[in-house]
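hey can u check if this looks right to u? its 264 residues, i copy pasted from the old doc so theres a chance i mangled smth
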Amino acid sequence: MALKRVIPCLDVNAGRVVKGTNFVGLRDAGDPVELAERYDAEGADELVFLDITASHEQRETIVELARRTADNVFIPFTIGGGIRSVADAQAVLDAGADKVSVNSAALARPELLTELSDHFGAQCVVIAIDAKREGGPPLSSPPCAAPATWGVHVNGGRRQVEGRDAVGWAEEAISLGAGEVLLTSMDRDGTSDGYDLELTRAVADSVSVPVIASGGAGELSHLSEAVSGGHADAVLCASIFHYGRYRVREAKERMAADGIPVRL
């Protein structure tokens, strides 16, 4: 059975790691490279850096972050935020990143996924999807027959993309060349209430590539639930690690105890 991954996520704003709730109310969580080194030492499988205020003017900032991380960290890491072209991706990959994550730019110009995949290989291309529930029962409701739907949002969740649903966009993105899905529930992000298992399962069951569950981890049991109930291949975590509530090693030991195959 394939090993499941635990991936700390570092949202970077002006060179600092921040975390909020439902994409707002950001608070400082520390220096990104210092946190990355800590997670590497604790046994994280990979890291994800998301430059949440990325722009062309700030491109060198995220390239320098990739360079500093590569010099100090020895596990794979992904850089996302402001990747709009092969040249943008080339810059962070040359600096030491292993993958690039694209979101808004791929929705605006889907052929970007094919260009990146053709140039670097699908294994380097992650499609990030920020999804918000817009149909079916609310998250607090017991299971019922009514199907849920999830809209796709961009610009830090501030704008919904008309005519796009999360499951359909994931399928299309994979067909265009993405090799992995980073799926964030906007309803659960930063709430510590657990991942949206229905969303994660719907996407994971519809695509043939790994799906990383994101948004909502608050207890160690949530990580195992994302794999067993949500069919995720990896779990993305932020607040539970950044503020010292749990360590990566504890998370993986709990997952192993729950029968989830992980690298210890």
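The two ends are 15 Å apart (CA to CA).
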